[in-house]
Write a structure and sequence with these properties.
The protein is of the alpha/beta class. Helix content is 35%, strand content 25%. Helix 4 links the parallel strand 2 and strand 3. Helix 1 crosses helix 4 and helix 8 packs antiparallel against helix 9. The two termini are 33 Å apart.
Length: 254
């Protein structure tokens, strides 16, 4: 994938991260799932669509057999992991490989639509039309953004090491928590501070499943980065927490 205002137009491929993403990116805090349930996501008798679902992290953590759940992602590799996990756990989740802007799903069929860590990749005007087409009257659209903070020592060192080896990487351009907030009225944004636990292995895995590393580096670049990253982490305890901010922005559709 190439988006001219992300990473200076450097190509990236989320499919290359699928295994690591499935293994290490299931890190959303309990606050997120509690709040999504309060907002009615995956409630009994409702239909929920998760856009940019990746390996299915949100659906698998909010699974309710009494709700209709659909996950959509453009990456066939990531959807393959999501389907495999659903089959293994006997979860009735419908996963679809399709662009978020052109899902071909039925009109006005979802009570809730979520998009986590992905909205900045979508085409602005097409997304406006598709969301308005898909959501039911009085439905809710929820945009989620979880980010480590650079006042955390480990996060800052990891971040700077990626920038050193991949200076084109511009994480804020793709994951902006405010992007497209003017598309709909009635915006509400809630911010949560959370310390998320990691081991040295799981933090390295989380940073491996990143657009700036495995998704866009050459094999040699990635191997050099990972060797340096592991060496850096070895100077820290085996277990630690990393400071994050969680942004939940939602809109009630009219």
């Amino acid at each position: 994938m190439i988006i001219k205002n992300i990473d200076s137009g450097r190509p990236f491929d989320w499919g290359q991260t699928s295994q690591k993403y499935a293994q290490y990116r299931d890190i959303y805090p309990k606050q997120l799932y509690d709040r999504l349930r309060e907002l009615g996501v995956a409630a009994d008798g409702t239909a929920w669509l998760d856009l940019g679902t990746g390996t299915g992290v949100l659906p698998q953590n909010l699974y309710n057999p009494n709700a209709s759940i659909t996950g959509v992602d453009i990456s066939a590799e990531q959807i393959a992991y999501a389907r495999e996990n659903a089959e293994r756990n006997h979860w009735n989740i419908h996963y679809l490989v399709a662009p978020a802007e052109e899902t071909n799903l039925p009109d006005h069929s979802f009570d809730a639509i979520t998009a986590a860590q992905c909205f900045g990749y979508f085409d602005r005007e097409k997304m406006r039309t598709e969301l308005q087409r898909l959501i039911k009257p009085d439905g809710i659209f929820i945009k989620i953004y979880l980010t480590y903070t650079l006042d955390d020592e480990i996060a800052k060192k990891s971040h700077l090491l990626i920038k050193q080896m991949n200076p084109d990487w511009t994480p804020g351009e793709a994951a902006s928590r405010t992007m497209y907030d003017d598309l709909f009225g009635g915006r509400i944004t809630e911010v949560y501070h959370c310390d998320i636990p990691f081991t040295r292995e799981s933090w390295n895995g989380r940073m491996t499943a990143c657009r700036g590393t495995l998704a866009s580096m050459s094999k040699e670049q990635f191997e050099n980065w990972e060797a340096e990253h592991i060496a850096m982490l070895n100077s820290y305890p085996e277990e630690f927490t990393v400071k994050h901010k969680l942004y939940i922005t939602y809109f009630r559709m009219e």
